[in-house]
Design brief:
heterodimer, A: 223 residues, mainly alpha, MetI-like fold, 0% strand, B: 248 residues, alpha/beta, 4-stranded antiparallel beta sheet, 38% helix, binds adenosine-5'-triphosphate, binds magnesium ion
């Protein structure tokens, strides 16, 4: 099998995969970053049950979690221009992934916040902390440590979800592989490169995340 | 000593219920500056709930809590303000697990009271020295024993310079050999004239620290007496019964 591979073709395709990996990384980076920020803000609002806004966020979470990313992307890319809102493919992809990731991150943070013990919260209240100070100095640092495993899982999830952006004409890894197969019929080589590319992206990230998980857990709880 | 100083806290007809269940049914209590009030009573009689009401951790359903002319049972209480003056240490009050001892103590003084860092730090270190834990100032709570944590929780409350301190069974979850070191800190405070309300199950401690004993049962106060009086000749049968169980 290995002998039969066209190594020349593989070498020639590498730059294409390199570009696509770079694109995937870029999309994932921004989507993850924005999702985390959204998640942080939304989870605090939900935790404190801020009237009115909480309801809207709850609705957003339902919408985001119960529609396929593909549909969300189509809506952004093909639907919105009809009402005069045109975004580049990259922007659409980042917005779409953030729309999806934001709800996952919100749930992850919120789970962490709710796991912070009542006595820690009351300790904070009893020294006169305001609700925002309580969130900032007591609840969030602890919630963050508790949430790291699910935040990490979401990070990987979002990175993998980028594989769908080919649907809005972005030359991501999936699209590159599809094109190569379509043009040169080098299915085995193209797929091998595709799997390798994702492994190269995801594996180190997984390792770093579980290291971070242990590290933070120890810093916060000492076990 | 009793009822001679300035009246700090006056509770009148305080009522608290959880759902249908009335847990405090008309508490009347006055606390005078410099006085140590010890609350005794069987489990579930509402001692913790009373303290929690005084610190705004439980909303109340009736009555008045007057503190410097302000009604803490009323609407729109500025609890942030009040909590800086009524310090509180609870049975399982954890220190903030992600902060060092010093950061735990300084969070209130720096972020709530916005005090000068150098001055607050000096006070924190001086208080830590007083409870014999200055050398642990950079430790994390997980590196401390239960007794050490509780002494630091007391320092954390004291560093806000409160006018009244509330203690709710601060030694209840400690190993016996650590109870003493915590009670000694509270005794030290009593000697300095700190106004305190103390809920405890340590009878010997209650006797020696209290200026008076408040005995509660089933959500109301049955009896208020000086320790000597209370432990030798309680006025009510219920108190007698309670003491019998403890002196068994
Ligand atoms: N959050 C709550 N919800 C419902 N009931 C509660 C709540 N907190 C306390 N209670 C009830 O109120 C009553 C008084 O409780 P409280 O904790 O004040 O008693 P206590 O005198 O402190 O008892 P202990 O000596 O065991 O600490 C109990 O019957 C308890 O079950
Ligand atoms: Mg109690």
């Amino acid at each position: 099998m290995v002998m039969n591979l066209d190594w020349e073709f593989i070498a020639e395709s590498l730059p294409l995969y390199g570009d696509a990996m770079w694109l995937t990384l870029k999309l994932a980076f921004w989507a993850i970053l924005f999702s985390l920020v959204l998640g942080l803000i939304f989870s605090v609002i939900l935790y404190y049950k801020v009237k009115g806004i909480s309801f809207i966020i709850q609705a957003y979470i339902e919408l985001s979690r119960n529609t396929p990313l593909l549909v969300q992307l189509f809506f952004l890319y093909y639907g919105l221009p009809k009402v005069g809102l045109r975004m580049s493919e990259v922007t659409c992809a980042i917005v779409g992934l953030t729309f999806l990731g934001g709800s996952y991150m919100t749930e992850a943070f919120r789970g962490g916040m709710e796991a912070v013990s009542r006595t820690q919260v009351e300790s904070g209240l009893s020294i006169g902390l305001s609700r925002t100070q309580l969130a900032r100095y007591v609840i969030l640092p602890q919630a963050f440590a508790i949430s790291i495993p699910s935040l990490g899982a979401n990070v990987i999830f979002l990175l993998k979800e980028t594989s769908i952006v080919g649907a809005i004409a972005l030359m991501d890894l999936m699209n590159v592989a599809k094109d190569l197969i379509g043009m040169h019929y080098k299915t085995a080589e193209s797929l091998l490169l595709l799997v390798a590319a994702y492994l190269i992206l995801v594996l180190p990230l997984s390792v770093v995340l579980s290291w971070l998980e242990r590290k933070v857990r120890y810093a916060e709880f000492g076990d | 000593m009793i009822n001679t100083g300035e009246l700090l806290l006056e509770v009148e007809g305080l009522q608290k219920s959880f759902g249908e269940r009335l847990v405090l049914s008309g508490i009347d209590l006055q606390v005078v500056k410099g006085e140590v009030t010890v609350i005794l009573g069987p489990s579930g009689c509402g001692k913790s709930t009373l303290l929690r009401c005084l610190n705004g951790l439980e909303p109340v359903q009736g009555g008045r809590i007057s503190y410097h002319g302000q009604d803490l049972a009323g609407p729109q209480v500025n609890w942030r303000e009040v909590r800086q003056r009524i310090g509180m240490v609870f049975q399982n009050y954890e220190l903030f697990s992600h902060m060092t001892v010093l950061d735990n103590i300084l969070l209130g003084p720096l972020k709530v009271q916005k005090r000068e860092p150098k001055e607050a730090r000096q006070q924190a270190e001086q208080l830590l020295g007083r409870v014999g834990l200055l050398d642990r100032k950079d430790a994390y709570p997980r590196q401390l024993s239960g007794g050490q944590k509780q002494r630091i929780a007391i320092v954390r409350a004291l560093c806000m310079n409160p006018e009244i301190m509330l203690f709710d069974e601060v030694t209840a979850s400690l190993d016996p050999e650590m109870v003493r070191e915590v009670l000694d800190v509270i005794l030290g405070l009593a000697e300095q004239g700190m106004t305190m309300i103390i809920v405890t199950h340590e009878m010997g401690f209650a006797k020696s620290v209290g200026d008076r004993i408040v005995f509660m049962d089933q959500g109301s106060i049955c009896e208020i007496a000086e320790p000597q009086q209370f432990f030798t000749q309680p006025a009510t049968e219920r108190a007698q019964h309670f003491l019998d169980i403890f002196q068994y």
